[in-house]
């Protein structure tokens, strides 16, 4: 519905009403020009929970699923989460021109480039293992590939924090680095449990923190 | 304390300035998207944009997007400074 807010309010606008109007339009603008990061964090929390949960179930036998099938389903969930993130990011940034358009595009392309290398690295590592260590467990290969993938994830979050001035994103990236170190120290048998529990928890905390900060009414708008 | 800037101190123009200031001085927004955000009619928004443009607070650029003309609106450096001064004055009043 469209309105004409100026009607009859050209003069004598109350300072409190003016401050409220500023806050409302600033909030509406922020919501319209960028995706809500909280929703993205929650979507990824679900993706981590299902993805690593399936791997955990297949590996520890509480799901009647071969490890390869769990890996395949996890990969599909990962692609769906990527597609969702890309679509809402592109849609919200439409009809905006300027520096942020390039920054957003460059950031999105960096994620793609990072995961292209992770995919190629995974194939190369699997090939190397099949030649040098033919009896190696799929879990051992997965453990190493996962470490590289999470390295990309944590660095991209920290890069995003620097690019968009988002402290929550930086803390999330730093926490994923800590989780990655813990998973590497825990070894092939422990990394899935660490990410099945730690990943969703971190993402839910980040999403909740973002949601709270977006809803907080600030006395002075930007 | 000086008088509040009359160009900004009107509900519709205040909303426009706040929205464009949130966007930042390096960004511009398409007219239809700004209209949707502010919930204003096209005619009303055009009128207020013209007043702000005459004051040098915003700029409107007409571009060709695909095959259709589009208008992009953005705050100027002068507009951002005026809005900051307005906010300071407003807070002093409270």
Automatic annotation (TrEMBL), chain A:
Entry keyword Transmembrane helix: yes
The UniProt record lists the keyword Membrane: yes
Keywords for this protein: Membrane, Transmembrane, Transmembrane helix
Residue ranges of the TM segments: 38-55, 67-90, 102-126, 138-157, 169-186, 192-212
Name of this protein: Transporter
Automatic annotation (TrEMBL), chain B:
InterPro entries documented for this protein: WH-like_DNA-bd_sf, WH_DNA-bd_dom, WH_DNA-bd_sf
Origin: domain of life: Bacteria
Domain Winged helix DNA-binding: 13-93
PANTHER family registered for this protein in UniProt: BSL7504 PROTEIN
Record-given protein name: ArsR family transcriptional regulator
Organism whose genome encodes this protein: Paeniglutamicibacter terrestris
């Amino acid at each position: 519905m469209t309105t004409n807010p100026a009607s009859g309010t050209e003069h004598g606008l109350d300072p409190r009403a003016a401050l409220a109007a500023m806050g409302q339009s600033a909030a509406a603008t922020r919501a319209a020009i960028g995706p809500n990061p909280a929703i993205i964090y929650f979507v990824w929390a679900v993706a981590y929970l299902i993805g690593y949960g399936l791997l955990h179930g297949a590996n520890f036998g509480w799901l009647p699923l071969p490890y390869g099938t769990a890996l395949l389903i996890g990969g599909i969930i990962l692609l769906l989460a990527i597609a969702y993130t890309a679509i809402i990011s592109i849609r919200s940034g439409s009809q905006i021109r300027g520096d942020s358009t390039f920054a957003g595009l460059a950031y999105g392309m960096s994620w793609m480039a990072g995961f292209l290398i992770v995919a190629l690295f995974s194939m190369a590592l699997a090939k190397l293992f099949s030649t040098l260590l033919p009896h190696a467990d799929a879990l051992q290969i997965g453990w190493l590939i996962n470490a590289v993938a999470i390295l990309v994830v944590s660095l991209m979050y920290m890069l995003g924090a620097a690019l968009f001035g988002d402290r929550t994103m930086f803390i999330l990236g730093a926490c994923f680095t800590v989780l990655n170190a813990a998973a590497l120290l825990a070894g092939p048998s422990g990394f899935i449990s660490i990410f099945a529990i730690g990943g969703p928890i971190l993402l839910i905390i980040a999403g909740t923190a973002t949601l709270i900060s977006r809803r907080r009414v600030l006395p002075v708008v930007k | 304390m000086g008088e509040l800037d009359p160009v900004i101190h009107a509900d519709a123009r205040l909303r426009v300035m706040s929205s464009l200031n949130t966007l930042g001085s390096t960004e511009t927004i398409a007219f239809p998207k700004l209209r949707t955000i502010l919930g204003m009619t096209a005619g009303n928004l055009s009128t207020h944009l013209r007043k702000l443009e005459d004051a040098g607070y915003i700029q409107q650029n007409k571009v060709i997007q695909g095959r259709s003309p589009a208008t992009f609106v953005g705050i100027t450096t002068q507009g951002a400074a005026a809005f900051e001064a307005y906010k300071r004055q407003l807070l002093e009043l409270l």
